Design the sequence.
């Protein structure tokens, strides 16, 4: 009888444990710390955005939110890492390069459309056409004419092959009918230093990188790449206004989840990010630097991503661009 009684108690305990485990798996998301994986390093504007929004998300979710940098290959190391996880508590922050890579690299460790779910576009900002302060041009038209008279003699820098600041110039070259030599670096800071040293003549960085140097007179701003002028540089025309009608490139950051994330939680994360964008920290540290805070639904961001993929595929085919 004692054996039967002990067996019954053991069975009851197992049933209770199984029930508790089942209940815990149904706990509202998130039920443990969340990681945001960034493909750009500390000090980048994308890292600034991720680390600034993390405390607001932590308050909303009641869980720690940790930013983890996994850099390399224009953000593809991070994208490949997140897409390969069976973990719905790890998400990705990425930028334009993720849509460029879909066509630019023949082999990736992930498929953007199959392995990652668009969650929300969180920011947008212009790239800025800046030139060395000693270059004898006053505006974008003069720069284009200067370049046309010197085919393949001018250099442009970027933060890496396949990044937005690289491809924006390739599109610019194509539309302007000019040829310049690409000099890639491993970071925006190095690309900017090369411009100021005169090793290259132009660079198309994001606004947070370029703004302090423009204001200090260390470089000349000729145009912004977005369809509208930037509030941070209201006197600087757009590329479309100044010389190339229809030219428009936006540097954006967005959130992606992997296949382990349910569609219901993708929607929840999108809504919670949109709430966090309204935090005082995001307004003072991010919006104040000329970065527009967006916030979009998964469906809207998915359509946006698909359009970006097609845009860059066309540029890559037209320019016959290769990763090496």
Sequence:
């Amino acid at each position: 009888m004692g054996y039967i009684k002990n067996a019954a108690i053991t069975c009851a305990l197992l049933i209770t444990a199984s029930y508790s485990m089942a209940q815990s798996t149904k706990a509202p998301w998130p039920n443990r710390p969340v990681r945001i994986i960034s493909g750009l390093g500390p000090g980048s504007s994308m890292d600034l955005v991720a680390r600034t929004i993390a405390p607001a998300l932590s308050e909303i979710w009641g869980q720690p939110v940790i930013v983890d940098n996994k850099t390399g290959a224009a953000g593809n190391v991070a994208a490949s890492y997140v897409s390969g996880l069976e973990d719905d508590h790890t998400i990705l922050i990425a930028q334009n390069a993720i849509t460029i890579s879909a066509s630019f690299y023949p082999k990736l460790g992930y498929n953007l459309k199959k392995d990652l779910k668009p969650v929300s576009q969180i920011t947008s900002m212009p790239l800025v056409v800046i030139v060395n302060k000693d270059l004898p041009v006053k505006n974008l038209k003069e720069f284009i004419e200067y370049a046309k008279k010197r085919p393949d003699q001018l250099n442009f820098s970027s933060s890496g092959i396949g990044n937005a600041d690289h491809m924006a110039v390739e599109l610019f070259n194509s539309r302007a009918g000019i040829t310049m030599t690409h000099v890639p670096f491993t970071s925006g800071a190095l690309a900017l230093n090369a411009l100021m040293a005169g090793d290259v003549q132009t660079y198309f960085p994001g606004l947070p990188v370029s703004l302090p140097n423009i204001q200090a007179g260390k470089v000349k701003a000729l145009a912004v790449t977005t369809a509208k002028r930037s509030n941070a540089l209201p006197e600087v025309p757009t590329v479309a206004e100044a010389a190339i009608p229809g030219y428009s490139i936006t540097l954006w950051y967005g959130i992606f989840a992997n296949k382990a994330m349910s569609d219901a939680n993708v929607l929840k994360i999108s809504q919670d990010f949109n709430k966090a964008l309204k935090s005082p920290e995001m307004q003072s540290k991010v919006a104040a630097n000329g970065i527009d805070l967006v916030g979009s639904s998964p469906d809207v961001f998915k359509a946006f991503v698909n359009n970006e993929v097609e845009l860059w595929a066309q540029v890559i085919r037209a320019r016959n661009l290769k990763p090496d």
Q: What stands out?
A: The longest strand covers residues 116-126. The domain at 34-125+250-319 is CATH 3.40.190.150 (D-Maltodextrin-Binding Protein; domain 2). The chain is about 45% helix and 20% strand.
